[in-house]
Amino acid sequence: MMLVFYVMTKLIILTIVKSSYKNIRIQLTSILLLLLISGFEFARNKSPNEPWFFIQITDPQFGMFENNNGFEKETILYEKAVEKINNLNPDFVVITGDFVHNSDSVAQIEEFKRITAKINPKIPVYYTPGNHDLGQIPDEESIRKYIQNYGSDKFSFIHKGSAFIGFNSSLIKAKLEKPEQEQYNRLVKKLKKSQDAQHIILFCHYPFFNKTFDEPTTYSNIDQDYRKKYLDLFNNNNVEAVFSGHYHNNSLAAYGKTQMVTTSALGKPLGKAPSGMRIVKVYSNRIEHEYFGLEELPDSVHFY
Q1: The CATH number of the domain where 130 resides is what?
Q2: What's the pLDDT tens digit per position in 146-175?
Q3: Are residue 141 and residue 214 in the same domain, yes or no?
Q4: Do residues 37 and 111 share a domain?
């Protein structure tokens, strides 16, 4: 950056020497504009080691408060969340499932999509499906409808040197042998290709477990007979964290080197945490994350 200013300064001096008096003002104005543009370009292309952040929200679940008889409360919460997201301006947003309470409700789906569209288009939004988006046992038709409404049931991308992968945990929970194994094989390939990434972070709807690896199988976790298969894959491939939802409460755990982060609902809470979202800070050597109720969110994100 200093070299840019040195060269531009020399150019200004040469311009003054070689120009007539009446042209100096115009030429100086042009050069100052070039300096300003250079400064903006330098700020935009910051070092890849500069910390940054993204936001996870989960379970807005339109229709849950009133058992599918309305969704006014969900609308208020989600519109407030979108306003907060736009003000904070994260690098991207991930929504980990249960967008609606009834996957057959066109009104719920359209309201979710209407408000999501208010997120600044410069902020990418990624989705992973929940059980209320696909049904408790997904089939070809429910997956087709999901893709029609929201796009793919999976994603993967590299951002600022880190790898991010979203997958369909409903296939695992429902024990759908063929699609589950196909997804597992795809994850194996994606993780193998991501080993040079600064961080590897995964997203899904169902938590694999909430408190302890050997906790009993319940509605709120992945069945025990599938846990070790996936968690060993994650731990052996340097997955730093798995972010999920579904539980409508917060829970933090770990399996080996992998953090298991369960985030509470933006929609109706079922625990002590208020409706809110999780801010995830990404540093070159670590990630940090914190859950905030909508009324507790900061005006800006600071790094230390």
Answers
A1: 3.60.21.10
A2: 999 999 999 999 999 999 999 999 999 999
A3: yes
A4: no
CB burial string 188-213: b at 16+ within 10 A, e below: eebbeebeebbbbbbbbbbbbbbeee
Report the number of distinct structural domains present in the chain. 2
The domain in which residue 29 lies consists of 2-44
Contact 226, 176 (CB under 8 A): no
Same domain, 140 and 20: no
Asked if residue 229 lies in contact with residue 184, where contact means CB atoms within 8 angstroms, the answer is yes
What Å distances lie between residue 172 and 98, 212, 223, 229, 261, CA to CA?
Answer: 16, 19, 8, 11, 18
Q: Note the pTM of the prediction, 2 decimals.
A: 0.85
**Over 60: is that where the pLDDT of 27 sits?**
no
- Summarize pLDDT for 271-281 with one digit per residue, the tens: 999 999 999 99
Instruction: Give the Cα separation of 149 and 75 in Å (integer).
Output: 18
Say yes or no: 21 and 58 in one domain: no
Instruction: Judge whether residue 26 has pLDDT over 60.
Output: no
Q: Please, are residues 283 and 53 in contact by the beta-carbon 8 Å criterion?
A: no
- Asked if residues 203 and 234 have their Cβ atoms less than 8 Å apart, the reply is no
Q: Is residue 132 included in any domain, yes or no?
A: yes
- Residue 48 has a pLDDT of 60
